Fold this sequence. Notes:
This protein is an alpha/beta fold.
Amino acid sequence: MRISSFEEYELAYKKSVDDPEGFWGEVAQNFEWRKPWTRVLDWNFDKPDIKWYVGGKLNITENALDRHVRERPNQPAIIWEPNEKDDDPVTLTYKVLHERVCRFANVLKNHGVVKGDRICIYMPMIPELAIAVLACARIGAIHSVVFGGFSAKSIADRVNDANCKMIITTDGAFRGNKRIAMKETVDDALIGCPTVEKVLVATRTRTPVSMIKGRDYWWEEETKKVSAECPATEMDSEDPLFILYTSGSTGKPKGVVHTTGGYMVYSAYSFQNVFQNNPGDVYFCTADIGWITGHSYIIYGPLVSGATSMMFEGVPTYPDAGRFWDIVERHKVNIFYTAPTAIRSLMGFGPEFWKDKDLSSLRVLGSVGEPINEEAWTWYNENIGKGNCTICDTWWQTETGGIMISPLANITPTKPTYAMLPLPGVQPMLVDEKGEEITGNAISGNLCIKFPWPSIIRTTWGDHERCKQVYFSAYPGNYFTGDGCIRDKDGYYRITGRVDDVINVSGHRIGTAEVEDALNSHTGVVESAVVGYPHEIKGQGIFAYIIMESQPHEPELTKKDILATVTRIIGPIAKPDQILFVSGLPKTRSGKIMRRILRKIAEGDVSSLGDTSTLLDPAVVEEIKAAAGIS
Ligand code: 7RM
């Protein structure tokens, strides 16, 4: 189903609320099922227990590949742009991609992988990453992609949580002018991963790596041993398709589980309707496949829709800050999807990087990952879109699987910084602190969704109770997003950011508790508290307050050591931007850290610290202010 006017949007929206099962049954007819479902939806938000397309059988790769091999075999499925601007791009047509996926699926089978096994994928943005993901889906193995910037310990934690039996990686990665070790990091992780039996290694940088007999195998050699035919494994709608770890406000990252049928329907439905991709279009999403945006809008949504999806290996500033626009010009990109942090960073480099580039192919510009500020929205609209493109500010989450609130390109009106309206099938609700629904105009509220959609999170891997606690208990009967939101008089939504202890740094979700755990493991650290603060480029920066056993003799060196510890434990993306050594933290009598106060101090705004009378020791606040150089 493809909506093509605002009237159609309104009709579809109404139908989706009046008759959700009828609506989603119709949408799902657009895909190929081996066996139809007997019920569209079964749900209970209290347990939670949510099932879509009950009894339906399918394989998502038959929809993403085989179908298009029949209908458009020579159309590019993936166009890969390498790190070096002077290297040739690689085009994989649907026919070629299908063949490479089948071949690699046979490699997985040869190495004992069967339906339901969990496979960790730790790779840079090369075509083999997409091939590995789809090969897992081909045979019903559950992929767990770990972003290439995470540390060995983060890999190990994720591998162990899901008991992965294989890791797929590369020798190394090219990122801008850096070469990054991948296999070596996996080797470090493997010291603590007893369930991993095999490691498959694709070559990219041809960096020397250790290869252990009986465990480590080269991708290229293994693919030579197998045939290019691999029938797809029949999956139930509710069989897990993948696990993707994401940070929350407490504890370690949790494994968000998405299942086959509902995820396929929603990723493709949302892709088609938000971006309004037409046959022959080139679509470019700059995300990394290690995040949900890459799963849903580089791989599954576009490929199930038969689109042409660009995949870029490098970084926006290499060889210079015009790289995205060079790619748009070179490949005549029609739809471009990126994050506000990239926009803000590129804005700062000056017009010589964009003004002479031919961007006339562009029709739709997307934004995702964090709130987009008005200045960035306007710059994107004027300098990249030349005032001729729709800006789709798309709000969604790892847990929602697909875009929930966004303009439909050239259909929905737009307004700077607003994600505008829910897609048909999505029923947002704003609630106040007491859990009462706010109707009409709302100057602030917590964003919930009151009815399921096909790609809603099903569980958190290995810990269903956590899924219930985090998402379905704050406002019983509703899914709670963790985001704050306002709604204007026209009913348009603007997402203002997290209301929990999750920080959004350059569009990456980072839990304050995770960073604190890493900080606390550094020698000499007694206690720490981490908060987010406004950062011009990153959206939010990480501010760490740290109590040391004794005042460091060389504070600057100690700070660097602490950053090295965080990099070792989580990865460079979790490094605090600022560290302040303090002698105490503002705590309530019950021992709870008052983060509100720490946030204000990190912002440099102490004019309204609010009520500090409940603090165990109010003098601490004055000390911290003095340490921060604020009075
Ligand atoms: C897709 C993705 C999810 C969190 C979410 C929000 C924030 C994402 C927007 C946004 C304002 C947007 N998944 N967020 N998109 N905030 N406007 N358009 O980013 O799981 O990694 O992060 O990101 O806080 O809860 S995610």
